[in-house]
Write a structure and sequence with these properties.
Structural class: alpha/beta
Mean pLDDT: 90
Number of helices: 10
Number of domains: 1
CATH superfamily: SGNH hydrolase
Helix content: 40-55%
Distance between the termini: 56 Å
CATH architecture: 3-Layer(aba) Sandwich
Radius of gyration: 18 Å
CATH topology: Rossmann fold
Number of strands: 6
Amino acid sequence: MSSTVARLLVLFLGLLIGLAAFGVTRLAGGSCSPFTRTPCVRVLFLGNSYTYVNDLPTAFRDLARTAGQNVETSMVASGGETLAQHAATSDSVNAINGSHWQFVILQEQSEIPSVESFRQTQMYPAARSLVATVRSDGATPILLETWAHQAGWSDYGLSYSGMQAAIDQGHGAIAGELKVTVAPAGQAWQAVVREDPGIVLWQSDGSHPTPAGTFLAACALYTRIFGPCPVGSSYTDGLSSAVAGVLEAIANQN
């Protein structure tokens, strides 16, 4: 291999690593199958690293396909991206308008919903704008309620439970105003912490999800789009069948 080719290969690999770290607009894998009578359900995800770490759209798609649903997913997600940034970004707005989606998942940055002033100045105006755009395109918006940080948010005097309660309240208020469904991943997360604390949901940073956390979020979304998450499904995303079963059952309770 020539030195020039080697340098190009290093640059290319560096680009791939960078994209994985910061998130990109990308198809989460595979179109709906044309060889089934099951209707195609197309789902767009707008989020940030909570969405692209462990590839939540693909986890949701594979869970749904294993249960017999014909699903296609795509996402727009960059590290730390807020709903306000999505609302102001052509990539996100064009993604909503550029294809016929049945559902658009809206995931806010993890801390904004837990502080009232941030909700009023950032989350709520953006949610109103994005929901209107989604509905004008004929799709159904769903708010993905995220989980609190494992240690809460000390800068604002919030423990884990206090931060989760604020996130729940923040999503519930705007969902009620806009009549939007909430996928309560954060509430399911708290139930797992309470009922089966041996299941590790947070990565070591106390913020981002482990594969188990992403699987739980996928189950929470499934319950709001298709109905009860299939307990005992053959799809476990690499988790043990016992752990996957616990997460599926808890998601169905929320």
